[in-house]
Amino acid sequence: MTKHLIIIENKADWAPYFPSVQVITVDEYLQNPSQTSKTRAQVINLCHSLDYLSPGYYCSMVSEARGHKVIPGLRTINDLSRKSLYAYDITELAPQLDKLISETDNHERNHFVVKVFFGHCDIKPLQKLARQIYEQFPCPIVEIEFSHKEHWQISKVKAGAINKLTELEQDSFANALDNFDRKLWRKPSKKRSFRYDMAILHNPEEKMPPSDATALKRFIQSGRRIGIDVELITPKDYNRLAEYDALFIRETTSTNNHTYKFARRAESEGLVVIDDPTSIIRCTNKIYLMELLVANKLPMPDSYLLYRNDHTGMDRICNEATFPLVMKIPDGAFSRGIIKVNDAEELRLHAAEFFQQSAIVLLQEFMYTDYDWRIGVFNNKVIYACQYFMSKGHWQIYNHNTAKGTTSGKSAAVPISEVPEKVLKIALKSAKLVGDGLYGIDIKQSGERVVLIEINDNPSIDSDVEDAYLGVALYDDIMREFLRRLEEQKSSSH
């Protein structure tokens, strides 16, 4: 289990708060030979100054060298030390300021400072902005300086000091610290010891998540059986990532939402993360995948790229292609952003609609099959196989246009030994092109012809679907791979 440490400069700094054995001075931390890399720890650095070569600077530096997770890290300290480094990151926030500050009691002033504690701000209109800045520069206390000339602007962002808090600010800080990591102040309900901590990112509001509640429960159970304490987190827990050793994303991924942000942050914090940012980038765009597969001569349906305002290309495809064609938005998922066009007229009509969302549209040969193969690959090994049947009376697995809303076809989990060798070979070869993460490879088989349709970075693993043949063994296999990576990472750091 991770040890939590709060590092202060002087014991007097902690006088307003409840005593805790987890609170030690920076000298004790730096000089104590027992604080080695063998002790897993989450360090909260509350030193007065983080200036270069100050005790606070050395605290974060030594923490990282020991393999401890520390807030703030050296990168944050460095970024906050010079405006030239952080100014670019806050530029995009400027347009919001006039409106936001007009809703506060500070709107008639020319200058004021707001203190943010672990991403929390007491001024409600500025809370979202404060959270955004904290996510850019994770630091226990952040001071944001606002100034007004013609418009409001952020003139400075810097680390704050615990010894300079007012009595009211001390209360806010204590509450924010409690929310940041409740493990600091509450005794664990179980005495069982775990070697590692894992976060599973999920969104309870998502209508079609990659894993249902039962599957998530099975992941938790499997992890704990082998020494990984697994906890479900949601998008609001971004600032808690440093508490964990691993992140498993069980929410539909996209490069333009928080899932990619979580993956990137987790990777930068040294967590084992599935799926990693590179895999998300490569898999969520069908254009990239098509180019990748073509370059590596993997079999796929006849495909065309249609570019916005390319009238010559449109004419050529209308004249040369065999209809019907499948038209795809590059970043669609779960059969969304995919339609069938039956002739040139429909192609031109729907292309105009698609071009409002994307500058490039993918067209592929229509190839009907009763089912698609889904081959699950993790670390370049096949871990499960499943047949996804088309939705009743429809040409796709998911039909989003029924009176009952979205419907899907049946599925059948299949022993890996019963999957055609050609299907397995293509699945493994394609997965290796992307990386060594967890992928779902979609393949169509028509007679002797086998073509690759898609590589999914965040494949569905639902109860009684993908796990229907293997049961809990599927979850155990995935968690054991996480454990292997964690152990490998630990040994390489020594």
Q: Major beta sheet, specifics?
A: 5 strands, antiparallel
* CATH homologous superfamily assignment of the largest domain: ATP-grasp fold, B domain
The CATH architecture of the largest domain would be: 2-Layer Sandwich
Number of strands: 22
* Rg measurement, Å: 26 Å
* Portion of residues within helices: 25-40%
Explain the overall architecture:
This protein is of the alpha/beta class and 494 residues long. The protein contains 15 helices and 22 strands. Helix content is 33%, strand content 25%. The chain has five domains: 3-77, no CATH class; 81-160, no CATH class; 196-276, Rossmann fold; 302-365, ATP-grasp fold, A domain (Dna Ligase, domain 1), CATH 3.30.1490; 369-478, D-amino Acid Aminotransferase, Chain A, domain 1, CATH 3.30.470. The model is unreliable at 84-89 and 183-191 (pLDDT under 50). α8 (213-225) packs across α15 (472-492).
